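Regression test case RT-17, inverse folding.

Input:
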């Protein structure tokens, strides 16, 4: 008896054809970045599977292989919390982690200590996906947030892999697209065993896609579990000493800036310095390939600055953070923090890394990728959302009002700490579907 639906293998080849038809649009700019900008060279080799190990990850008796996928830095941070909870309950698990971006890869290699290997995610063509799955032989696959690749999910499901979504979220635009395009990618959502999502709104969207409401649980945002802990006075003193900031000037820390945001930040900082004498700036661009460009911008404005990698100046006006993996701690030496990716239409970044240090947090109008965190911060008055022309007055008001800085900082830290537990709920829910036979 036939159902009239194409089998999963046929659907995978149909998806391959769709990818090939789209290649003339996406391939030229990608090749330009590889050949001219010298970006994506490492990740492209990894995604094509050119450096796969010769030995396969055979399933050892009494254990299983788990593959966690996190596209970039934010998802890696959330994934850290999930892996930490998993190994508490199942310490013998052999863990593989993957990312798409090179910044995510660097972050994963730094913090995902539970993983035996960190690789780049396979390009979603059937042949490549099958080689990766045959090499790493996962029994459990966990994808963070919304990393939905049709061929991978169908092929993994066909091999009997238990597939889970963790920290799941779906924008209205993405939901609308998947609802319309679902017939082109049949079997994609059927392959997902269960989903842990951030909000009730996310649950309603995934109920429409998975059609199995009992397999979808609202667990909250795992980023709350990875927000770290505040610096000790000794740690703070050591960081300031390393940066050669020996005076007691107030400090503004700005994290994860994107193109167009440094100009906004520098204008606001210049204005604020007129009323806040000696105000220093620690500025961390989001992507390492932009470090030199931001350095040139600082030079063009006559700013006396040093680089984090080479702090050669005594008490510089500004420090350019040209290193990855250090921002979360640097927030702790600030008196006020600005979390960027929010003054241009990026969607915002993690407010919790700054808030956990009891540092008041400002952020811009574009926070659509952080809806749950934004909702909590607004409800508890734990931060302040401002337009770009409001940033300078907001900085002045905070730096000139110690009581308000303390109040907002304490509210932010409380919000970060009180909402933890999502990773534990996620792992417990996933494990309820993965009982060993």
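Golden output:
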């Amino acid at each position: 008896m036939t159902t009239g639906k194409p089998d999963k293998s046929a659907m995978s080849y149909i998806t391959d054809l769709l990818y090939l038809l789209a290649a003339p649009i996406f391939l030229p700019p990608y090749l330009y970045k590889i050949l001219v900008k010298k970006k994506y060279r490492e990740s492209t080799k990894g995604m094509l599977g050119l450096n796969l190990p010769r030995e396969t990850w055979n399933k050892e008796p009494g254990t299983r292989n788990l593959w966690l996928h996190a596209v970039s830095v934010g998802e890696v941070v959330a994934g850290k919390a999930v892996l930490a909870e998993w190994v508490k309950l199942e310490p013998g698990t052999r863990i593989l982690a993957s990312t798409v971006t090179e910044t995510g890869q660097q972050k994963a290699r730094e913090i995902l200590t539970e993983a035996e290997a960190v690789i780049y995610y396979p390009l979603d063509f059937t042949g490549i996906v099958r080689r990766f799955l045959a090499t790493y032989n996962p029994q459990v696959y966990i994808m963070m947030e919304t990393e939905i690749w049709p061929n991978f999910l169908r092929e993994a499901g066909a091999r009997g892999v238990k597939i889970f979504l963790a920290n799941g979220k779906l924008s209205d635009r993405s939901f609308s697209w998947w609802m319309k395009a679902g017939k082109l990618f049949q079997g994609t959502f059927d392959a997902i065993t269960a989903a842990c999502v951030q909000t009730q709104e996310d649950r309603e969207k995934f109920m429409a896609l998975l059609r199995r409401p009992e397999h979808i649980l609202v667990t909250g945002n795992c980023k709350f579990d990875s927000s770290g802990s505040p610096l000790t006075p000794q740690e703070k003193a050591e960081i300031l000493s390393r940066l050669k900031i020996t005076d007691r000037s107030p400090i503004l820390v700005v994290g994860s800036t994107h193109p167009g945001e440094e100009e906004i930040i520098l204008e606001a900082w210049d204005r604020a310095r007129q009323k806040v004498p000696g105000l220093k700036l620690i500025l961390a661009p989001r992507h390492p390939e932009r470090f030199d460009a931001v350095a040139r911008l600082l030079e063009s404005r006559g700013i006396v600055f040093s680089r984090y990698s080479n702090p050669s100046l005594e008490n510089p006006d500004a420090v350019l953070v040209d290193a990855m993996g250090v921002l979360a701690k640097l927030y702790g030496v600030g008196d006020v923090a600005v979390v960027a990716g929010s003054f241009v239409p990026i969607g915002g970044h993690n407010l919790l890394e700054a808030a956990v240090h009891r540092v008041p947090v400002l952020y811009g109008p574009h926070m659509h990728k952080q809806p749950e965190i934004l909702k909590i911060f607004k409800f508890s008055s734990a931060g302040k959302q401002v337009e770009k022309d409001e940033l300078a007055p907001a900085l002045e008001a905070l730096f000139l009002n110690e009581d308000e800085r303390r109040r907002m900082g304490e509210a932010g830290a409380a919000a970060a700490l009180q909402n933890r537990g999502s990773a534990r709920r996620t792992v417990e829910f996933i494990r309820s579907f993965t009982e060993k036979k």
